[in-house]
Amino acid sequence: MECPKCLSIMKEGYIFTDRMPIMWLPKNDMMPLTIFGRPQYSIMITKTPFLTRKKAVSFYCRSCKFIITPVIDLDKD
After folding, report:
1. pTM of the model
2. Which of 3, 40, 73, 76 is deepest in the core (most CB within 10 A)?
């Protein structure tokens, strides 16, 4: 994948989680109190980990220290 900031080739990898799902929250929103909570305007990056770790595919640019992580589609699977 090509970095949108500097056009260098990005390296593929993963971001792991084992307790809470990884999610994006708008600035000033609160993190949910439980693993099942989901704030109204949150964007899920991984599903809730149940007995196994979850991982999100991510791309890292060494040149500008930028990470891109695609969002999952919760309706699939």
Report:
1. 0.74
2. 3
